[in-house]
Amino acid sequence: MSEQLKVPTMAEYMAEGKQPEVLFWVGCAGSFDDRAKKITKAFVKLLHSAKVDFAVLGAEESCTGDPAKRAGNEFLFQMQAVTNIEVMNAYEVKKIVTACPHCFNTLKNEYPSLGGNYDVVHHTQFLKSLLNDGRLTIEGGQFKGKRITFHDPCYLGRANNVYEAPRDLIRKLDAELVEMKSCKSRGLCCGAGGAQMFKDAEPGNKEVNIERTEQALDTQPEIIAAGCPFCNTMMTDGVKNKEKEGQIAVMDIAELIANAEDL
Amino acid sequence: MDYLPNILFAVALILGVGYFTRNVQKLIRNIKLGREVDASDNKSQRWQNMARIALGQSKMVRRPIAGLLHVVVYVGFVIINIEVLEIILDGLFGTHRLFKDVIGEQVYGFLIGTFEILAVLVLITVVAFWLRRNVIKLKRFLSAEMKGWPKNDGNIILYFEVVLMCLFLTMNATDVPFQEMNSGNVISQFIAPWFEGMDVNTLHVVERTAWWLHILGILVFLNYLYFSKHLHILLAFPNTYFGNLKPKGQFNNLEAVTKEVMLMMDPNADPFAAPTEGAEDEEPAKFGASDVMDLNRIQLLNAYTCTECGRCTSECPANQTGKKLSPRKIMMDTRDRLEEVGKNLDKNNGEFKDDGKQLLNDYISPEELWACTSCNACVEACPVSIDPLSIIMDMRRYLVMEQSAAPMELNNMMTNIENNGAPWPYNQMDRLNWANEA
């Protein structure tokens, strides 16, 4: 597939005097991380397939400030937030969708008191509403009967009480959804949150992602589904560590649906 | 001379309640050392949370075994306390089983019968609790922070409860008129035969002794609370009322920082403006927390409320994988430091004399703070709405913004965000390159 994806920017929309239906906030991982870029592209394909009028900020997007804030650097976080808010308010952004739960949480919860008030949804919530509205259809075919376990991202689940949207999507694939020992509000972290992604772990007897991967493997899955680019990396590393990458795939929900759609 | 017992009782009551009140005042004073925090919003939601989580024990039963055992002791404790009211009135007025005549033998018998059954259930449960702590050796009771006093404290509370329940049953079993009434002695009628062969006078002495020891024991236990983790039986209520109502992922935006950031971003701000009158005398706000005074009052109330059950620690991903971090220890350290500061105030007529110590380093190490993934598992696990994560975050803020003491890799990450708007060293202009990659 060498065809280029059509990804309009907010600037292009503005030049035409139009407003997109939704701003797709790509996030740093989605923009730069090789694995996460695949998720971004899968989601864009779904947006096109559902004929969603969307745009990205492109080079005008900057880190939400989440890792800086969780690392304790409130200054840097607020500088990032205020800058991003200025850009988005200038474009009169109303609705944002993002495939990263960290961006989702920060934009939704921590931007309003700094002047950024938007309707922010996670891509699993957005995809679910597209399905409900009949704008997107899933043929379960490829994943029918496959054992899929879903790893709850902390910043989607516990942080914002979104547990069902991703699960509903997996069920729509006619897949067999199997739950890990710790799931939903008691889901175990993948180990990346709170800026841990960017540093080595403190001394201990195990890596958090290995512990979580073991819980996932206990469910004998064919696919480990994720809803966060950082969780995806951690679980992929965990599966490699267990030398199971040949049998078990780690995939984002958007990729599952895009694959089912054969986009 | 007939009034001697009444007077002695009144004195004991005044001493017991008085000393407890004094300590509660101290507790309130210590909590007020923290920063003010506005929790005047959503009153109805807050009352609901208190009713559901504290009164209704909704989060306790998430772990069914410990939860159900706890509900038995909790219900027993609350209901048996109706009896304490009668004991206090009897003691003050020199009456005996005052309520019997007020509510009639049948209702009275029903009540006491219920208390007796609950007392036995509490006894059984307390034994189960003791076994869990001392024989079964559950992992969450064996952490490093549970050595010494915290372990003894847990057991002392259980012993207190055994003694109080036994005294209650003995007092009923040796109460001849009560046994003769034969209503409500559902359990004590089986204990009464143990005292057969004693004459009426000796029985009376045993009954009085049990009665006195029971109420004195309750007064001692009341005063023990302040020195113990068991304070949760009272503080769980205000703590759940003041619990966080926002999404757990939402961390507060520091206002002092917002002011400075807004000033920096304001194109009309005069960089050479002289500070306003008096502004120079103000101490600049400290960012984050290095000691208990930097935390807010709800966080300090959290620390006093913690009963060291360890559900937070057992759910913590860092702790599960052998890191030093234990959210329970964060709460215990905060409480212990706050108590230390409180004693410092007591000694120095209400003024804090610098003791060269603080919460950071002397109690909580940076290694513990940096191990947190901010996953909120500890917050979710707490049965009484304690938020250890907020303390960890406030202390990280101090480390980073006041001391520039972040781990090197995090400094690199933050430099990248500052320079190119991403945690990795990629150019911001390349953010849309993915769209052109096949």
From TrEMBL, chain A:
Read off the InterPro entries from this record.
Answer: Cys_rich_dom (IPR004017), HdrC_iron-sulfur_subunit (IPR051460)
The record places domain Cysteine-rich at 22-108, 148-235
Coiled coil region boundaries: none
GO MF terms, alphabetically ordered: 4 iron, 4 sulfur cluster binding; metal ion binding; oxidoreductase activity
Alphabetized Pfam families for the sequence: CCG
Its GO CC terms are: plasma membrane
Keyword list, A-Z: 4Fe-4S, Iron, Iron-sulfur, Metal-binding, Oxidoreductase
Q: What is this protein called?
A: CoB--CoM heterodisulfide reductase
Q: Which species is listed as the source? A: Winogradskyella aurantia
Automatic annotation (TrEMBL), chain B:
Membrane among the record's keywords?
yes
Any transmembrane segments, and where?
6-24, 65-88, 108-131, 156-174, 209-227
| Designated name of the protein | Fe-S oxidoreductase
PROSITE patterns hit by this protein: 4FE4S_FER_1, 4FE4S_FER_2
Q: Which InterPro entries match?
A: 4Fe4S_Fe-S-bd, 4Fe4S_Fe_S_CS, HdrC_iron-sulfur_subunit, Helical_ferredxn, NarG-like_sf
Source organism of the structure: Winogradskyella aurantia
**Domain of life (superkingdom):** Bacteria
Q: Which GO terms describe its molecular function?
A: 4 iron, 4 sulfur cluster binding; metal ion binding; oxidoreductase activity
